[in-house]
Amino acid sequence: MRYDDPWYDALASGWGESAGAGVPVPADSSGRREYEAPVAAAADVYLEVQRSEAFQEVRSRYRRFVAPAAAGFFVWYLAYVVTATTAPGLMARPVAGAVNVAMVAGLGQFLTTFLLTWAYARHARLRRDRAALELRWDTQELTRGLRGGSS
Amino acid sequence: MTRDHQTLALLLFSAFVAVTLGITTWVSRHRQGSAEEFYAGGRLFSPMENGFAIAGDYMSAASFLGISGLIALFGYDGLLYSVGFLVAWLVVLFLVAELVRNCGRFTLADVVVSRMSERPVRIAAGTSSVTVSVLYLVAQMVGAGSLVGLLLGGSSGAAQSWTVIGVGALMVIYVSFGGMRATTWIQIVKAVLLLGGTVTLTALVLVRFRGDFDQLLLTAAERSGHGKAFLAPGLRYGEDWTARFDFISLGLALVLGTAGLPHILSRFYTVPTARAARRSVVWSIGLIGGFYLMTIVLGFGAAAIVGPDAVRGSNAAGNTAVPLLALDLGGGADSTGGTVFFAIVAAIAFATILAVVAGITLASSASVAHDLYASLRRRHAKPRSEVTVARTAAVGVGVVAIALGLLARDLNVAFLVGLAFAVAASANLPVLLYSLFWRGFTTRGAVWSVYGGLIPALALVVLSPVVSGSPESLFPGVDFQYFPLQNPGLVSIPLGFLAGWLGTVTSAELPDEAKHAETEVRSLTGAGAV
Fold it and tell me: Which of B151, B153, B207, B253 is surrounded by the most beta carbons within 10 Å?
């Protein structure tokens, strides 16, 4: 049974298996670009891709979103827990009806979690997925050419 | 509880067991016995299916019964506790799910060893994963035993022991015959049942108060006897500074521990791509967030409708708040509706425990077979198929869990869930984050960060009031308590990160630039992912 996802067709050798012990790569019928197989170790391929501008762009997009967002929710959660345990008086202040600051802050945690989840998924879908997929194909082509040439 | 409740609850529960055994047989028809199939279910689940399965793995009976019980007894502090369980998923979504899917195969150790010398790191990561799983497993097994006592009135020791043995036997059957595929389907069925039950009860509570949440809160506060204080923090975690630090420690462990739980990490390998892993986490955040929001309504509903005194009278920890609420919502103790509702809730709670223990057993059998056995077996020993070892390991884990569950039957093990999260946060998360994001990380750093989190976490618990020195301790008769907090996270999580850093800067090994490049490229693009 084939899974109907373009990424799934590209099974490469297992992670952690030493080079050379790799499983033969299944034939791939999708249109592939031809590379002049570079006579280099697989390690150089990854170093080369890592230094490439396209990869640096994907990485910095990922980091520019994740670093502030992760720091933000972590500080917000810690501030919430510390305030709730050490300053119950502040948290008990009424806002409207039976709802007090604590209730607003608690439900605010739920809300920010949902919002950040949505923002992250959207950012990844629009800003990263396409570039990452292209890099994946290119990298796999490079390592494949290598394996074909050396064996 | 009357006979009717018991008969109906047992009937429903038997139906669930029959369905799950049916699933196990059905999925193992065309079994090929590959590791891919056993650990990762062939990696062919859809994001939605996996999202439900993750939610099923995560929402334990401790959440369903425990958190709403806490809210029913202590009001706001129960809500405070539940927030950590949800916010933790942002760590998983942002930093772990996609990257782990891209560069791992089956376990946590797979991600780390890609950059390190294999053997010591596998042994370390395998040991801590098994430790986390066993702690979590024993908490669930003992919970299952006491649940039987609570819900079916059979508080005799024999009924509890047989429950622990029965749950253990079932989880071994699911895992060793059905592998990941059966376990995942059982999680999905359970998640649907649990969410269905929770939605129904929540709707009934809201209908009772005509949709007026404010009125619900006011009634709950009034009946609690604490007045407005019931709706503000402090009744449970604010007594003194020890209690406050204890809760901060627990909160930290919850938020950072989820991303290090082995049975959660292994779920990301059941989908084909990192994008699918991300979408399954988005699904699960929606489901889990909705679930915790509903437990808040159920908790305050139980306080308002049943009343904290009746809840406390049935079980001091509040674990029967939701079943009692269901009884009331259905029409009271003597009505058919009440009987049916009570039985359904009891059966859902059992189903929850069974599914959760199956997930943990599978993850720990993967750690034993894929990490520990593969690294520790003698070089010249006859090679066995890894899946055979994993099936045997599942039986072994089951036997250990049953034995510990029976030994701990009458002990107060409520701290174990928090401890499992603390160990996961101190031993598993630092090594995972360092190896994904730190260019200079070395083998020694990896080994130190695992043991540097694991050993302090366990040692501090041994020296804490949960083991000795207070009337509620495991060993109330002796006193070797030197650490004041029940949860070690506040100290052991920074220690885990510190040890990893220290091990790295003191090691003579030069970090391998090429291996780091490979990890970074693979984790962000998915090149060469299995």
Answer: B253
